[in-house]
Amino acid sequence: MKQQWLFSPTLRDVPAGADIPSHQLMLRAGLIKQNAAGIYSYLPLAKRVLNAIETVVREEMNQANGQEVLMPAAQPAELWQESGRYEDYGPELIRLKDRHERDFVLGPTHEEVVTSLVKDELNSYKKLPALLYQIQTKYRDERRPRFGVMRSREFSMKDAYSFDKDEAGLNESYNRMYEAYENIFRRLGLDFRAVEADSGAIGGTDTHEFMVLSDVGEDTIAYSNASNYAANLEIAAIPDHYEAPKATEALLKKTATPGVKTIEDVAEHFQAPLEKLFKSVLFIIDETPVLAVCLGGHEINDVKLSNLYNTVHVRTATAEETLKHLGVEPGFIGPVHVGDHVEVIADYAVRSVTDGITGANEADTHYEHVDPHRDFSSFIYRDIRLVQAGDPAPDGQGTYQFAKGIEVGHVFKLGTKYSEKLGANFLDENGKSQPLVMGCYGIGVTRLLAAIIEQHHDENGIIWPKKAAPFDLHLVTINPKNEAQYDLGETLYKLLLEAGYDVLHDNRKERPGVKFNDSDLYGLPVRISCGKRSDEGIVEVKPRNEDTVHEIHQNELLAFLEANLNG
């Protein structure tokens, strides 16, 4: 393609409001243009990259026996009502009515639709397993769209769904998709890690996220420094390795603490380390009050609570609810002398303290010399806190370290969550009706576009990995008014196209500095420049990710590219 025809409005300066490199470079290089908050148009260069990403995705999905379909973005609301997600999904689900007042949603995902699609077709074990996938636009009404296409309200996603007759088949499908995802991200040149994760609103059991390692990632990866164990921070597990020291002989003591509410205030008032304090937080879980207790230096993890109670309805109690259930405002609550109407659950680390301090469920009052086994109301120990760097990993090997990551893929074992609710059954070998056993597998295609740039850029622009690049080569005729340069540029353009390369040819009447700046900004894998030695048939070849410039004769160019740059 001749660059004079390329619609790519570049920017010299970093746009206001673009906080991360991928957003800045996508705007500067003319890849995207914002239409509304979290909604973008993808311009030709970006669309070419998306096409390249989709090609890799399709190749790996087809290799894994996937069949591509295309399902509607507008989904009947009754399907979501049948599955129970119409209300559970929350305000991110975009709801609308048609002219006949029928309810629809704009699909953020397609579990309900695909289950409805196959329920009457995959009706025999002889038709299983099956794997369907699509690449399609999704919609989520994000509260705070930000970071460009990284967290947007309209985005492209590859979602796939497997259907098996039993758990063994699901495990095989899951492992096949896991391997396909590893292949996809490797081929796209990404440094990534697969981590254990929470299934969230989609539901299911085993699940892994694929994280591209990046300092701008919104997710925190907790990983062992001595093994391959890794998990999203929100579900990273803590083993029950705590032992109770000798019980305190001191009697429970009530102490006046006027105005001492925060855990830091309590530590200062009693001159006690955080490890000796019990922090209590009242949650409402499915309308049941649950008092969660951890040590002062730790934080309660509401995702772990949600998984323990197998519900998405977990929230921190309001001040009014705290007063109603515990008789005191937040800041003075605790697990001593709590009524039976409130469940008490303590983190494993609480076991390690037998002479601690906690709120007394009275205004301006705390207890000293608290021994959980002696003084707490009826309670159980569970893993309910966020891990910290240095905590032991659950596989018994090493301790936790942290890294930031961008989630680009997620694989779930759904089991029969949707097939049971939507009546998707098949007849097994004995003629007995059984629910289909499902898995689902998503890749954020437009998010991958940003994630690739986050890992592959420098101060001058983007550095596209070969498989994601919008063009293979950038051919630059430095001075098209020079006859030798112009003729060589046109000759090489034709030669490279005939050799199968996708070429962007810059023969614009622009200053050399403008051309080279644009070339670095676009970040195509290789730049070939026709300059001062064009009359000798000599061009300069520069890989975008190297500082080295090679002088190559035009007759040797194809061989050089094949030997050095095609890999």
Automatic annotation (TrEMBL):
Q: Which CDD domains match?
A: ProRS-INS, ProRS_anticodon_short, ProRS_core_prok
Name the GO terms of the biological process aspect: prolyl-tRNA aminoacylation
Which reactions fall under this protein's catalytic activity?
A: tRNA(Pro) + L-proline + ATP = L-prolyl-tRNA(Pro) + AMP + diphosphate
Gene3D superfamilies to which the protein is assigned, alphabetical: Anticodon-binding domain, Bira Bifunctional Protein, Domain 2
| Leader sequence residues | none
Q: Name one GO cellular component term.
A: cytosol
Q: Which UniProt keywords apply?
A: Aminoacyl-tRNA synthetase, ATP-binding, Cytoplasm, Ligase, Nucleotide-binding, Protein biosynthesis
Primary residence? cytoplasm
Pfam families in the record: HGTP_anticodon (PF03129), tRNA-synt_2b (PF00587), tRNA_edit (PF04073)
Q: Which GO terms describe its molecular function?
A: aminoacyl-tRNA deacylase activity; ATP binding; catalytic activity, acting on a protein; proline-tRNA ligase activity; transferase activity
Which InterPro entries does the UniProt record give? aa-tRNA-synt_IIb (IPR002314), aa-tRNA-synth_II (IPR006195), aa-tRNA-synth_II/BPL/LPL (IPR045864), Anticodon-bd (IPR004154), Anticodon-bd_dom_sf (IPR036621), Pro-tRNA-ligase_IIa (IPR002316), Pro-tRNA-synth_IIa_bac-type (IPR004500), Pro-tRNA-Synthase_IIa_type1 (IPR023717)
Specify the Aminoacyl-transfer RNA synthetases class-II family profile domain's residue ranges.
48-465
Q: Which SUPFAM superfamilies match?
A: Class II aaRS ABD-related, Class II aaRS and biotin synthetases, YbaK/ProRS associated domain
The compartments listed are: Cytoplasm
Q: What is its EC number?
A: 6.1.1.15
- Record keyword Nucleotide-binding present: yes
The UniProt record lists the keyword Oxidoreductase: no
Tell me, what does this protein do in biology?
A: Catalyzes the attachment of proline to tRNA(Pro) in a two-step reaction: proline is first activated by ATP to form Pro-AMP and then transferred to the acceptor end of tRNA(Pro). As ProRS can inadvertently accommodate and process non-cognate amino acids such as alanine and cysteine, to avoid such errors it has two additional distinct editing activities against alanine. One activity is designated as 'pretransfer' editing and involves the tRNA(Pro)-independent hydrolysis of activated Ala-AMP.
Assembly? Homodimer.
Q: Share the domain note from the entry.
A: Consists of three domains: the N-terminal catalytic domain, the editing domain and the C-terminal anticodon-binding domain.
**Entry similarity comment:** Belongs to the class-II aminoacyl-tRNA synthetase family. ProS type 1 subfamily.
Protein name as annotated: Proline--tRNA ligase
Identify the species of origin. Answer: Salsuginibacillus halophilus
